[in-house]
Structure formats: C-alpha cells, structure tokens
Task: structure prediction
Amino acid sequence: MRGTRFTETMLGTVRLDAADPVRRIRLDLRARAEEVLHPHRTVRARIDGRVRVTGLADDPGATGELEISPLAGRRIRYRLSFTAQGRRLTLDGWKSVTARHPVRSMTVLPFSLHEDGAQVGQGTLRFPLATGLAPFLLSFRFPRRENAADHHAPRWDGSPGRTEVWYTTLTDPATGTGLWLHHELVAPTDGSAPMAHGWAAVFPPEGKVTHARFGPVPWTGPAHGFAAGDVTAVPGRLSGSAGDLSWNLTEQPAAEPLFTFPRWSWRRPLLPATHMLPAARATYDGTFADQDRTLTLRGAPGASARINGHGNARRWAWLHADLGDGGVLEVVAAVSTRPVLRRLPPLVFLRLRHRGRTWPRRAERSAVGLLGIGRFRADIGLPRWTVTGRTLLRRVRVDVTQPDERTLALDYRDPDGAPAVCRNSESADATILLERWWGRWRTEATWTLKGTAHAEVGDR
Result:
C-alpha cells in the first residue's frame, strides 16, 4: 500500500491577547498520511515542521495532526503544538470547505491558540496561491508505506557468529542532556547459547558522563523487539533499569524509515553488517532517572536504529544529526574485518534527508561512487573526524568533534570473542556544509550542532 507526503506553507497574523500587538505567523509544514488521499473520505495525517511568530517563537520541532475531509466532513482541520518562549502552545483551526466559495474556503484558516486547555489567542492563516501553489503541488509523493514497527522484530535466524543491536539516542531539549540506550543480542561463533546485554548512559551538558550495564542474560527470543530481564525495547516503548539508572519512555516516529546501507542488505544479510533507522526521526516522552535526579522528557528529539551483522568493523565512525525542520544526517564510515576489505580505506555510507528528499538517492553511491569515481572519504580520529564527498551536482563536508570530557569509552566483545571499544558522545559538536554546483560551488545549506550531535568512533 502507498501513503501520501506533501508540504504546505501558510502565512498570516495572530494576537495572543487584547494588550498584545498583532504578530506575523508562518507555518512550514510536512504532512504524512498512511494512505492515498481520497476527497470523499476522511484521511488523517501527521504533521511536523516549523512555526515562526514574530518576536515570540521560532520552533522547528512543531508536531501535530491534520484531518483532511473536504467532502465527507467539509473541513480540513489542523492541530499543531509548538514552543514559544518556554510556553507550550497548541494551534487549533480548520478550513470550512464550501462550494459557494471554493478558493477562499480552501485557502483561509482561522485558528485559536491554547495553553493548558485555555484559549490564549487567535488569528488567521492564508495559503499564498501566487507563490505557494506550484511548490505545494510538486511536493506530493505517494511512497510505499513501511511500518516502523516491522523493523523492530529480531532478524536472528539461529546462526552462530551473529550480533544484533537495538539502540536509541536522544537529547532532552529542556536541559541539553544526551541519553543513550544500547540493547544487544550476541550469538557466539562457538555455538554456545545466545545472550542479551546492553547499557544506558547519560551525557549532561556539564559534569561527568555516567553509565550502567545490564545483563548478560539468556536470550529468550521475543517476537517484537528486545527483552532482557526488566529491560525492553519494543515498538513505541523503551523501559528498564541498569544500576542506578532507570527509564520509561514512549517513542513516536516522526519520519519514514531511513536505510543507511542498501535496502536489500537489510532483507538479505549478505554484507558483513547492515544499518537502518525504523524512523529517521522520533520524539520521546517519559522519565529517565539516576541516583541524583529524574528527567521528565517532553518531545525530546532523537532516533532508534538497528544493526544486524557478524560483529563490529575493524574501525568505524558514526554520526546521527537532527538538523531541525525535518532534516537528518546519518553517517557510518567503517573498515571491514574481511581479509580483502580491511585493506581499503573506510567505506562511507552517508544519507542526508533535507527538504523531504534523501541524498544521495542510493545508499551505495557514497560508498563505491559512480564507476569508482566520486566515492566519499572519511578521516577517522579523535577528538575530531571528518567526512567529505560529492556527486555530480552536490558536495558535502561533515566535521565532528567529540570532546574528551563528553565522550564515554566502553569495552565489550564480538561473537568471535574479540574485544572491541566504542567511544561515544551523545553531546558532540558537528558542522555540516552542503554545496550545489551552479556554474560554481554555492552554499545550499549549513548546519551547526553544539552539544546535540550523536557520534561514535570505535575499533577492535
């Protein structure tokens, strides 16, 4: 089955109360429905994007829902939550569709603003036909629908010498604290019983990074995700405890899946390992506690990812960067342990989702180039590592810094018993420069992340 994706921009004015001046407001939204739109039906879609209110708000992480019912219900309703100067506001309004005024009724959105259930403002938004119609129509996509929950199920088939990982990284927007939950299944090469283990880690903006481990315990073969004692990682929920740390989180996918490696490698495990995100972006609500305090998370941005393979690479680097406004960058650069592949420089798998499109279009492009030309390159080290690469009309440079005081080193073992060490920071810094060729290289976009990039360098 197919879904529907499109973007929409609306402009207007809003006033919070009688004493407040009239302010300009702009919405840049992305909508995702799990079915193809039909005018005679009611279709519900998730929306997210950026809300800008002059002198009050500029929130790129707004989320909500859209009810599209132009014939059945004669309305198109928007409900969107965003943050304005520390206040959590909800925009609620609808276009009342009528045959008497088809254009006006489809382009004018009166709305009200609410805080904690009480109305605190009202305004009107308009769809700009002259400048917005063409981008709106061209933005429509009808992708095959993929359920993020399907990718959480274990893929281990009972073979020895395999490892499978479920991990989640996120940043608390209120405190800037980074969190890391790592869940791992290991089936030893010698054929002994598989085990489940993992850890949780906290990366405060100031102070010492702390972590605690759980397991190992026998693998019980859950059907829908990971389980080890009281620790679970299943679609929509993460819970458990490790040492002084405990957590109970709900996960709401905010984007479609992203395959860092070729999509076929996830279905058919022919490569030494493969990596993907069931949802390229997600938000998290709930609590995460240590011995000193309890974090209450509301709409914390992050993502969960999956790894399936024979173990760790000989050397690797990884980055997850939430770029805001629906954008995300995922990078895996690795040197294989296989006899021939380990002689090569790091293979780079880079996926940039920007303005609703993913670049490069195919995951193989960044790793092998086109006929061997244009392959992306990585210079792996600490505290700084870089990735550069280009296609015909675009090029990118990624600079990642993992300060020592914000990096956690953890040791563990692969299925063959070989030791591995990962050096992870959920509060790393990153700068990304994307350029496009228009007769010369011109800047298309730049991003700077201070303490909110999720990165890792490891070896075995």
Notes: The domain at 148-459 is CATH 2.40.370.10 (AttH-like fold). The first strand starts at residue 4 and ends at 15. Helices lie at 102-107, 129-138, 263-267, 363-368.
